[in-house]
Amino acid sequence: MIRVTVQAQGFDPAAELAALEGLAGAGGIASFTGIVRADGGISALHLDHYPAMTLAQVEKVAAQAAARWPLLGLTIIHRFGTLAVGERIVFVGTASVGRTPALEACAFLIDWLKVAAPFWKREVHADGSGDWVEAKAADDAQAARWS
Amino acid sequence: MADRLTLVYFAWVRDRIGAGEERVAHPGAACTISALLDQLAEGSAGHAAAFADRARLRAALDQDYVPLDTPIGTARELAIFPPVTGGDTQ
């Protein structure tokens, strides 16, 4: 059961985890929730994305994880738009018969989302000014460790 | 072949060009993305600023990531953007 959502509104990780726990045969659930951190006094983060491409790319990453690990369930939620400090940006949840596939697939998914999903972050300051976040070579290296 | 090509821009590429989307005459199947960017950069200061540092640019043809030296072929949409920065904050 693969569920991929790209949305502006928030989400409830508890409800997402409960859905994964309810899958028949599930013995291990892993999850990752990313939140907006108050780096350098930013007041919000704006996430730009390429709507025509985003869902297809996120689904492609999800399909790769599903092909590689014996997953019973996989949930990815990625938000876009303007998010205040402390708000949730991204959720990855995986369910499997045991811990190893769930944990590994979860780490794989969040690493690959960072380098494959067409999102761009802009740090917004209290005065309305902002700066685009630069991609880090470390993110490419982190994703490449799975190949 | 399509006679028009839609260009879409994101993040600071869009900011420098001053538009998120524009349509141009299709440059032909053999024309590479880089060659088209060279042509566009000659047309306006904004395009020149956006396309100056090719190492910081990524591209997608009809919503698939491709290198900048890829021929445009029969694609209808070309996206130009910086390396992506989704996922968590770190």
CATH H-level superfamily title of chain A: Molybdopterin biosynthesis MoaE subunit
Give start-end ranges of low-pLDDT stretches of chain B. none
State the CATH topology of chain B.
Ubiquitin-like (UB roll)
Put simply, the count of helices of chain A is 4
Average pLDDT rating of chain A: 93
- Radius of gyration of CA atoms of chain B, rounded to a whole number: 13 Å
Number of continuous helical runs of chain B: 3
Question: Which second-level CATH architecture of chain B applies?
Answer: Roll
Strand sequence of the main sheet of chain A, in spatial order?
1-4-6-2
Per the principal axes of the C-alpha atoms, what is the gross shape of chain B? globular
The portion of residues assigned to helices of chain A is 25-40%
Cα end-to-end separation of chain A = 24 Å
Biggest sheet record of chain A: 4 strands, mixed
Reading the helices and strands of chain B in chain order gives: EHEHHEEE
Strand elements of chain A, count: 8
Distance between the termini of chain B: 43 Å
Number of domains of chain A: 1
Structure in words:
Chain A is of the alpha+beta class and 147 residues long. Chain A has one domain (2-144): Aldehyde Oxidoreductase, domain 3, CATH 3.90.1170. Chain A has helices at residues 13-21, 51-68, 99-116, 137-144, and strands spanning 2-7, 28-35, 44-49, 71-79, 81-84, 88-96, 119-124, 130-132. Chain A has a 4-stranded mixed beta sheet with strand order 1-4-6-2, with helices on both faces. A 4-stranded antiparallel beta sheet of chain A has the order 5-3-7-8. In chain A, helix 2 runs antiparallel to helix 3 (99-116) and helix 3 (99-116) packs antiparallel against helix 4. The radius of gyration of chain A is 16 Å and the shape is globular. The two termini of chain A are 24 Å apart. In chain A, 35% of the residues are buried. By secondary structure, chain B is α+β, with helices and mostly antiparallel strands. Chain B has a single domain, classed as Ubiquitin-like (UB roll). Chain B has 3 helices and 5 strands; from the N terminus they run βαβααβββ. Chain B has helices spanning 11-17, 33-43, 45-51, and strands at residues 4-9, 21-25, 58-61, 64-66, 77-81. In chain B, strands 2-1-5-3-4 form a 5-stranded mixed beta sheet. In chain B, helix 2 packs antiparallel against helix 3 (45-51). Chain B is globular and about 40 Å long. Chain B starts with a strand and ends in a 9-residue tail after the last strand. At the A-B interface, strand 2, strand 3, helix 2, helix 3 and strand 7 of A face helix 1 and strand 5 of B.
